Fold each of these.
Amino acid sequence: MMDPQTQLLYPIDKVLLAVMILIIMFGMGASLTAGDFKRAVRRPRFILVGFISQFGFMPLIAFGMSWMLGLPPAAAIALIMVGCLPGGTTSNLFCYFARGQVALSISMTTVSTILALVMTPLLLGLYTRPFTSRISEEMGGGASFVIPATDIVLSLLLVLVPVCAGLVLRRRSRPWAKVAEDTAGFMGMIVILYLIVTAFYRHHSLIFSTPWPIYVASISLGLAGFLFGYYLSRLLGAYPIQQRAISLETGIQNTPIAFAIILLSFPDSAMQNDMLWVAIIYSVFIIISSTCITLWFRRTGQLDWDVYQNTLIHTRLFGSDWKTEYPENFLPPRIAQDPSQGERREDSIREEN
């Protein structure tokens, strides 16, 4: 797909990318608390919905699009890898602006990141077999190409080191942890924008020479994740604020981890370039589509969010037994029975424990 002599990332880019990954994952760890893990345990149903969406649907749809659109093997492997990844701090940020349940989003990110140690190499090995066999055939001479599962696990473990460091900082100094959390999101966005802009500037011809199926697959993967997460969670009884969180968590994958895995586990420069290009395209369009989806969620979720906030304030002021009265037919049917959208139930569980 790409000229083997093309140098997509320069040494300085790789250094910045490594720094970005460290900062983002450190910030992610600094944002986590023991309460996030407790919430995950208390919400097994929605965590399961997230697991099905993240590690069930996304890899399957990535494989399906790669197969139906006839993507080149390296591009297909990269797309499937993106589909096999956990969520990240970016989804938590978009969830906040979309009026979603941020606590649920963070809980899902935490669980999916831990499970990725097993699920990502397992699913990648399963779904990429048709494409690795094609690479083996092209290599000839009886050579066999296999997905470097051990290297991928080591890459994921390496990425989790700064997360653990962030957890330690959070435990020892919350003010500094907050600084690290805020800095990580900002610095990560700046570095991603730098890498995207420089890649397009140096290799702008790639924009026009890249086959259209790669664009379709890269854009559609995130959009399909948004839709699947939204409607599956609704089908299983999630409230609107939870739907929005699960939708964004499903569609937005942790692309910094994808960059880390590609750079550390696929040393062949030609294949590495092809895979990085797909990850860059996905990163560009997932930011655009996430922004559009977030603006839509923010507008359509205004009423249920205001009712949710109002109910929480009344609960804090007057106790969990207080029932706020609203005009008849004022509340949407889905939150009429529980305007707190499950939060009061969470409070009662916390009191029992």
Note: Residues 347-353 have pLDDT under 50 and may be disordered.
Amino acid sequence: MVYPTDEETFDERVSPNFISKTHPNLIQEFLKRLQDFLGYGGRLHDKFGMVMPPGGMIEWPDVDAIAGWLLCDGKQYNGAHSDYSDLYAVIGKKYGGGAASLFHVPDRRGYFTRGYSKIPSISFLPEYVAHTEDKIWFAAQKFYRTGFPVRFTTDDTLPPPLVINTTYFLRWSSVDWFWICTTRANAFNGIFIDLTGVGAGTSYVHPYIEEDKDSRLKLVAGGNDGEDLGSYQEDEFKIHRHETFNDANKVNDGPDFRSIRHVTGNDDSPTSYVGGVETRPRNVNVNYIIKR
């Protein structure tokens, strides 16, 4: 190690001028490594890629976004502008758009999110069915987990006793092998269907994780709908009904149900109104911002 002489201070020895004289390549090497570390376009990278890429969204505990970020409020921007071009290259017009390069950022105000579930269907042949082990091999599948809901179709014959247009649930075995179960509970408990044959011709397994995907709409004109990213869905109850009594001699106005008290004839009456002004889970109010 070289120490400063009596005539030199430490600050002088670490000054850019001194370093450039004594180690002419050091600054260039440092700048090169700094550029490599920051990555292309001045964005911070680690060994796996961008630390926070354009389009990344986070919860934010303030009403205003910070520098380099935009509020997820559905506002329109011009993707041709250098301030927004990186973000536009990632999200395009998924959340709405106008002429040329005009695009909208996501509008997360008052909305819960739902995980993207558009997964391609997979074809399989009889030789992919190990019916003695009650398993089917789905090549390059993207189901990845036990309890995943699917439906089957076929150009010929499904492995018996499977039938088309019926919801089944997968139990993961190993790699791309799955058992087929009649309920999600059975899938988790290891109760699977006894396959009695391999079927014939080409059959197909279709993901069925979002049964009402066709009700998803464009939140803003020019955006995506259906299964695609950025689509929007109104709130809704799953179809159901409430049973009531029709017994003039029995009344039970308990907290969980109401029987019908008859005054005259056999008139039916509805149950009382309960609840608030919207359907919702427990929630916490937060803001969302998106990296530009």
Note: Residues 20-51 form one domain.
Amino acid sequence: MSRFNCEKCETKFNVEQCNPVSIQIRIAMRALQPMIVARQAFSGFGLSKDPNYNWADMEQEKQSNGKNPQKKAKTSTKPRAIMGKTKRLVEYKQEKPIQLTLFEMLLPGEQPYSNTVELYDFIPKYHWGKVERVNGMFLKSLEREFECRGSRYSVTIQPASLRDKNGEEKYFYPSKREELVEDALRKFAVEGQGLFLDDAAGVTFTLHQLQQELANNGHTYNKDQIKDALLVCAKTNITVTSEDGSAILVSGLFETLGLQTREDWESKGQKSKAFVRFNPLVTQGIKARKFRQFNYETSMSYKNVVARQLHKRMSHHYTQASMMTPYSINLTTIIRDFGLTAYTRLSHNLRDVETALEEMREKNVVLSYKIDKTVDTELRNKMVEAKITITPHPTYVSEVMQGNKRQATIAEFPGDTTS
């Protein structure tokens, strides 16, 4: 973590004596000087957008070169190379612009927090629950609609195609695991590991570091599962269109993924670096300063998917939080915008939301809530809608107020928000 001396107390960020806002401004001012992030060269390749590239490519290449084609390749726990044609990390132009510095949260009191990003974080791009594959392999694209700040959008999610160690192809939707991996990588960027690679926001990391971050927040995955999650994010394509039908985004969840080669792993082991370039909408949100802090540690601790999605949504949009101004949302909005399955009986969806609200109450995000049901008398009083009204907990309110102050400081800071 970067440290700077405070002119007021001549200490290293003594939060008892220093003004955190002035410290944040000082950090940002340092970033006005050109900062090219110097990274040690490594031979990791970016993930090819060609869907035919997969984990089995290296073994197939060996066989095509005449290395005992009849002998079955031995399985290895070491990472395999991704033989794509995209650039290595050292071939990208690496910068740290002022917008990325403002995106960071380096003060000791900011450790629990990360940032949500406008629009991207509110695309219902994850699949929850079981999947039904065609012939045990294929998955159909998901078609969903959602709203963000009053504008209506649709999104098409094309599942990722991966091959297992036996070379068999299988399709995957991004799910809870991929969401957690994305959130952990963004947390790394918030903590100072972020950089712009050819003008796209990204982050460098190691698989071991990512595994430890997830484990520290209660989510245990082995390295193969984490690599699969990274590949699913890179190979899942989303197409977002506005209500008038004009395309605004066609991209993977990650624009680029760079994993280490076998030689890199053998020479550096778990210290071998990987990198990701985030989705273009993340880059756009950082440049435009359309991001907002949320309690990352609380979000990562949720067991309930709805609780995590609702927490992020409230943290980003519910900027007027107070006990006098409760937050309201309809059940059908939650189903639509979170990408949930709408059950035949909405009461079953409501049950899941109530479970989420109870968990949020345990974590001092929700103080209380009430539910107003709408029924259709012509359908034997079947519930057709429910309005959920949430009174926030004082602890959550104080976090929102803290976020408002930080946002005001970011908005007032000079600099371009478009380039």
Note: Residues 1-84 have pLDDT under 50 and may be disordered.
Amino acid sequence: MDTETVRWLYLEAGRAGFAQVVVWGGEPLMRDDLPEVLRVARGAGLFTTLISNGWLLEARWPELRGRVDALILSLDEVGPAHDRLRGLPGLFERLEAFVDGLRGDPLRPTLLVNAVLSRENRGALPRVAEVARRWGAGLYVCPMETGEMTSSGFASLLPDEALAPDELREAAREARRLKDAGFPILDTHAYLDLVARDPGITGYTCRAPHAVLTVQPDGVIRDCVRRDQMLADVRQLRAARLGLDAVFSLPRYRRMLSEAAACAACNNPDVVELSWLWDLRPVMLRKVLQLTAR
């Protein structure tokens, strides 16, 4: 999407009542207009969250400073091991230098770390948790998603990358032990217990599409239960002088909401816990209060 279309999207998202925009990959720092669209997003009343591998952060931060409410850094290992996983020699040192430069900054965003568990980083969680604590960052622990729902059913894209069920159970138990020991793991006990009990993570009712619209870089609004199909196209909505909220009246949008309730393809804590929050589960109301007090 060009800059004007992204501006329109974020203004419409604010008017439609969305609370947050999450800007992520590919790598959002590759967009020259990122400072401008974040300015528009904040002006529209959206909480701005940026997800990055951090390679370009130090160079671009002066123009982004004050426009990012929450910054999520992808960190799957520490030191040269992380560099190898990401194929970027020197990346971990760049992250260390950048985070160190944020100390004492009154405009420092809320800092979070996202660690994806896979066969490529077995045993890394305690090391990543220690770095997150040293950085003063919250840590989300996420199983690797190895596929997606399509109109033909579940499509397995990375079957050899995911941890085996017994390994994922033990990783969840380890994350719980680290959380109980005071490390800043933000996954709830309820989520970690679910993964330890059911590593397939089928024991929840998905409500995420009620609160989230996923817009691809080309402007396609994705149907989360049929990712090879689209709900709508932002560019077409804008050309037709329709608001973003026009999506909510589409029959295929309502069908997606209904079908998502029977889908458990997503295994990450943001989808599971957002679904629990939508259902007003006490564990999530408590988490909201805890995060607000941070």
Note: The mean pLDDT is 94.
